[in-house]
Amino acid sequence: MNIFYFLEVVSNWLTFSIFNIEQNSYLGNSIQFFIYDILKIFLLMVVITHFMSILRYYLPIEKLRDFLVKRKLYGLDYFFATIFGAITPFCSCSSIPLFIGFLEARIPLGVTFAFMITSPLINEVAVALFLNSFGWQITLLYAIAGILIGMIGGFILGKLKMEKYVEDFVWKVKVKNGEKKDFNKVSFLKVFPQISREAFQIIRKIAIYIIIGVGLGAIIHGYVPEGFFERYLENSGFWSVPLATILAVPMYSNASGVIPIIESLVVKGVPFGTALAFMMAVVGLSLPEALILKKVLKWQLLVTFFGVVTMGIILIGYIFNLFL
Question: Model confidence over 99-151: pLDDT tens digits?
């Protein structure tokens, strides 16, 4: 069951009943998509920023951070982050609130990016659709590929030591040394207003970027003609994988939403690795995601993040084309 089904109902009602826009029209698809994603992302922002604020007050986040940083986990920290990313049903923009929450909780940057990379690439709905369309062997390879991109990409970004390129306001959201209290002795109702103010401060700082990013995604979603990309990928030869990755960047969807496109590409003769690279780039390298992340990451880290993920997707595409 879609956990955001109610928001889909509301967005359909507002678009087609209240605004009286024709269904299946370019404008109708764009407006419905915009309303649905705005409601979904801001709902996630409110819930997750409040949850992470509560977590910072009541749980020993420093111990979790120290566990991930000081102990030799031999890559298991990155693996756990990718598994958590795989089981969260978020698209790239929807996973950003949790990404911010991880950074605020002082989870290492590389581990946080491992989650951020994997979360849009794999989810349970996409796995079910893959099973139905391509069988369990291809589905398993797809899941392994997504986890490997997340683990290796997160590891590389962590080793580059680029924490200074995270915007300052993210690091400043914490309990100051002189303000730590035993909140177990303070009623939650008295603490909650402070927690809520902190959460909404984060939301206000990135709200405009969310609106701009989702707006751009809605325009692309509604107005890009069906079959537009197939025409460029059928006969591109060796360059089909990087071309598919580049063409996918302006798109905006989740993994389950773009799988039907993969089916149509493969049926029309596009190599599977090329089609998979297109899908992964759509869900993991969207331009709307970049616009939202720009408020959280400085351009040096943003470009590095997109570069690492792009190279991982292209490499996976070539590997699948070589062996399938």
Answer: 777 777 778 889 889 988 888 788 666 777 688 778 889 889 989 999 999 99
Residue 305 and residue 169: Cα distance in Å, rounded? 20
Separation between Cα atoms, residue 81 and residue 118, nearest integer Å: 8
8-state DSSP, 17: I
Could you tell me if 44 and 31 are in contact, meaning their C-beta atoms sit under 8 angstroms apart? no
The gap between the terminal CA atoms of the chain, to the nearest Å, is 32
State how far the alpha carbon of 236 is from the alpha carbons of 56, 92, 275, 316, in Å. 51, 28, 12, 17
Of 293, 280, 199, 272, which Cα lies nearest the Cα of 246?
Answer: 280
Measured over the CA atoms of residue 304, residue 256, residue 75 and residue 272, the dihedral's sign is negative
- pTM listed for this prediction: 0.68
Structure tokens at 32: 């419905």
- Tokens representing 173? 């959201």
What phi and psi values does residue 187 have, to the nearest 5 degrees?
-65, 145
Q: Is residue 30 within 8 Å of 218, Cβ to Cβ? A: yes
pLDDT at 177: 40
For residue range 248-303, list pLDDT tens digits in order: 877 666 665 677 677 767 777 778 898 889 888 888 887 777 877 887 888 999 99
Contact criterion met (CB below 8 Å) for 253 and 179: no
Query: Tens digit of pLDDT for each residue in 180-224?
Result: 445 455 677 888 888 888 778 767 766 776 787 678 768 867 776
CA nearest neighbour of 210 among 91, 293, 292, 290: 292
Token pair, residue 137, equals: 């062997």
Q: Give the Cα separation of 324 and 322 in Å (integer).
A: 6
Which phi and psi (to 5°) does residue 166 adopt?
-90, 135
Amino acid in the structure at residue 244: A
**Closest listed residue to residue 292, CA positions, set 199, 182, 217:** 217
Contact assessment for residue 109 and residue 103, using Cβ atoms and an 8 Å cutoff:
yes
Query: Cα Rg for the chain, rounded, in angstroms?
Result: 20
DSSP label of 238: G
Minimal CA–CA distance to 36: which of 60, 2, 61?
Answer: 2
